[in-house]
Design goal:
single chain, alpha+beta, 2 domains, four-stranded antiparallel beta sheet, three-stranded antiparallel beta sheet, 3 helices, 7 strands, HNH endonuclease
Length: about 120
């Protein structure tokens, strides 16, 4: 299991958002991984990863089965996802398939919280 969370550096000099598990240890994610840097606070690390997720919203997902639109309940096979994230999908009909509604229904409209992924 991977625990996605804000991680404090071992030397207590700052924070990065990352993934941690018993087998592989901890590593930075998002912008923190692309250009190694640390944030002075946990809140800033969480805000950074939240922005990274929002910057990677894609409106090109399709499902094989009919699902209900998260906004209006109409049947749809279209949806939104976060690029590189195979865990989350917001099903939205063509009328509601916008970045703003995708961010709302993917629950990434603020700083990143904690999550567990396997």
């Amino acid at each position: 299991m991977n625990h996605l969370t804000a991680l404090e550096r071992a030397d207590h000099t700052g924070w990065a958002y990352g993934s941690r598990n018993r087998r592989t240890g901890a590593y930075a994610l998002g912008y923190c991984a692309e250009q190694p840097h640390v944030h002075p606070t946990e809140d800033e690390a969480r805000a950074c990863y939240g922005q990274y997720q929002r910057d990677r919203v894609r409106l090109d997902s399709r499902t094989s089965n009919w699902c209900d639109c998260a906004e209006c309940g109409e049947p749809t096979k279209t949806g939104a996802r976060i690029e590189g994230d195979g865990y989350n999908l917001a099903t939205l009909c063509e009328k509601h398939l916008t970045a703003e509604l995708a961010i709302k229904h993917l629950h990434i409209d603020g700083p990143a919280g904690d999550s567990w992924q396997s």
